[in-house]
Structure formats: C-alpha cells, structure tokens
Design a protein that fits this description.
This protein has 476 residues and is α+β, with helices and mostly antiparallel strands. It folds into three domains: 241 residues, DD-peptidase/beta-lactamase superfamily (Beta-lactamase, 3-Layer(aba) Sandwich), CATH 3.40.710.10; 102 residues, D-Ala-D-Ala carboxypeptidase C, peptidase S13 (D-tyrosyl-trna(Tyr) Deacylase, Chain: A, 3-Layer(bba) Sandwich); 72 residues, no CATH class. The strands form five sheets. Strands 2-1-19-18-17-16 form a six-stranded antiparallel β-sheet, sandwiched between helices. A hairpin with a 7-residue loop joins strand 18 and strand 19.
Length: 476
Amino acid sequence: MRMKLRLIVVAILLLPLSPVSAQQAQALSALRKAISEQLEGPLFLRSLAAIEVADASSGTVLFAQNESLLLRPASNAKLLTSAAAVLGLPQDFHFETRLAARDSAMRTLVCLGGGDPLFSEQDIQKLGEIAQRAGVNRIDTLLLDGFLFGDDYFGTGWMWDDEADPFMPYVSAFSINSNTVTIRAKKSTVSVTGYDVTCDPSSDVFQIYHIDDQKSGTSFRIERIPRSNEFRIQGKLRNGKSETEKFSIWRPQELVASLFLDELRRRGITGDSVVLRFEESPASLLPLGSVRRPLDEVLAVMNKESDNLCAEAVLRALSFGTGRKHTAVTANDGLSALTSILARNGITTDDIALRDGSGISFYNLVTAAALGKVLRAIAASSQYDRYRTSLAIAGVDGTLRGRMAGQPTSRYFRGKTGTVRGVSALSGYVQAPGGRLLTVVMLMQNFIGKPAPYREVQDRLVKLCIEYSASATQTR
C-alpha cells in the first residue's frame, strides 16, 4: 500500500504543468524580464533603483531588486504616516479648533488651536459666527492657545535655505491657507512704487518693500526675508506684465489672529484696545463652540496632493490616541506613536527610520521591502478601503493626474509619488478588474538633474504590473 502511494506521488510530481500553471509561470517570467529590461541602460549606471512587486494576498514577491537597501523615501514617507493613522486613530477622529470664553462675562476670548492643517478663512468666519451666537459683543483680550504642537515648527533635517518655499510650511497648532501666501505684482503707472501688489490672504501682517534698482536689466523677483513676513520686490517688469509667487508664512498664528479680529469687527464685536496674546490658556474655560475637520478629509489632501503640512499634523495627532488631552506634542511623540501602532499591527519597523511625517527630511530612510510589507498589511486590514481612497489615481487626480494620462488602464493604479532633490519614488497598489492586487514600491535616487526620466520608467513599470494583474483573470 505504501509503495502504491509513493508511486502515485511520484507520478503527480512528474506530470507536466497544467495549462493554468503554465500561463501563470509564463506571465510571471514575462513580467520579470520586462522590469529587468527597464532597469538596464545608462540611466541607472550612476543611480540606484530599489524595486519590489508582490502579490498582496499571498505576500509572494514577484520581483525584487535592491529591496533591502536603506534609501530616502521622499513623500513615500506619507504612506507610513497615513498607515499609522488609519490603524491607530479612531475612525471618527477630528482635528478641532475650539473657541471659549475665560468666564461668563465673555470679555476674554480664547481660541485653542487643534492643529487642523486645512483650517481656512471660511473656518474663521464660522468662529466669528459662534462668538456672535454666544452673545459676545465686546472683547478686551483675544488669547490664542497654540501650545498643542509645542514649538518644533520645522522638521529635523529640513533644509534651512528652503524655508521660504511653500512646500516647507511652518508647522503650528494654528494654520491658515496651508500656511502659504500668494503675492502678485503688476506693473502700474499709478502706484508710487511702480507696482500694484496684492496678497492672498490679504492682511497687514505682510510687509512688502520695493527696492529701486537702477539697472534696467535686473530680472524681476519677489523674495521673502528669512524668518519674517517681510517681502522684497526687486527688478523691472514690462508694462502690462505681472509676476506671481507663493511663499510659506512665518508664524501663521499671527495671521490667524489678525484675520479673526477682522472677522469679529465685521460682525460688530468691538473693543477699544484689544490685547492679543499667544500663551497657554487657563484650565477652566467656558466652551462656546468649535470647528472640526474629519481625519479622512486631511488624509485625502495629504496623500493625493502630497501636502506636507497635513502629514506633519497627522504625525503629531498619532500621539493623541483615544484619550486626547490638551497637552503639547512633538514630532518625536508622533514618531514614537507611529512605531508603536505599526508594531501592534504586526509590522516590524527595523528597516524604517523616519525623522518627520512628510518625507521632507533628508534623514529619513526606509527599504522598499519594509514599505511593501506596510502596504500589504494595510491591504489585509479592515481599513484598506479608507487608505486606498486617500491615494492618487493615475491619470485622474492628485500628483498623478498628469502621469500615464491617456492610458485607459492607468486608473487601475493608486499610489503616492515622492520627490526631493536627487530622489524620485512611486509606490502603491495595482489591480486590474478581476485581477490580482499587487503592491508596487519604486525608490530611485542618487541622480543629478530632473526626475522626469525616472518617472517615465516608473510609469512603464506600473503599466507592466497592470498587464500582469490583468493576466490573472485568465490564469486563475
């Protein structure tokens, strides 16, 4: 009997592959060959490409190259921050900006910043409406409590000379207009300076100076003086021409206060001499109302648009947990919480070293393999749909709206881009209708010049993965 069983086993092992298995093997072989060909040639002679493609359900790695190298993820770090958020924060979590009065006289208003990165001028109007409904008609003091995020307003490893650029926002418990200001200058024949200048948002917080340059050939430019909200206009503009620049705002809480005071006055809430203070509020306050922002709304902007301010706000929010208290939190608190949340969900973090939540820091390091494991862990969790919805759709929206455009199958990829100097990354999920769900991680770096050639390779690799996913409908 044993001999007969052995003969049966041997006979099975000697059988040729079934047509289904043969097609699977052929499709996989074609995928590996095609990816390898894309990574050959002069483009990668002096640069690095770490690639991992895996089956999300089984965890089987279909292709890997340099997947264990620690590399800079750029904005692919947001995949880790958002993964920790959907796994660790309550699904009904909100960023909340609260308005209160110091006592029943309501002559001292206290606004408590909740770190909402999407707080806007419309939200300031809502706070004004709350004050008006509460019966506030005159104030002596407006106190802004921005202590929730402490004072680490820039991330570790952020480049000092990028400080005025809008992609590197000042991190604050009070944000407004994504902590950016847009300045537009137009040649004028009426203005004394020769220019009509407008700011959006408009506020006297911004001071703009014109430098009279006698050299007619000097190119026109608008510059922000470091660590201030003062701007210089220099150079010449031809008649009818205009120039528009966007800058990060220094100490955005000052702009929030200025706009809020304007809104209160617009509603007839007066004060002969209002004292504006930035300090920690008293423990006992009379609540008047609040403006709340759902976590998923922030995650969508964070991942689709690669918004760095949203990422830094979400990172710090990770440390709030379920028992949120009004205590100062730092980026390090958020990073500790991120590590703990991933560990609780069975995700090892030995190959993940982050110094911020957005990916701006040049100190961030991660392996393609570690990032792939996080993507697969999310795919296996109950939070996958929320997470997937926050990602950009190729050729449709976010930072991928211009990528793979015109390809009818491009929408089968949802992912996150990443770009800093010398780094280009693209990672996410591929799934053709009825096909296998794949995780795709592509970290490319150590190159000189523009990232466009590397993005083109990434787009071709995504297309290959979509074709492989689609082949699973024929091979299952």
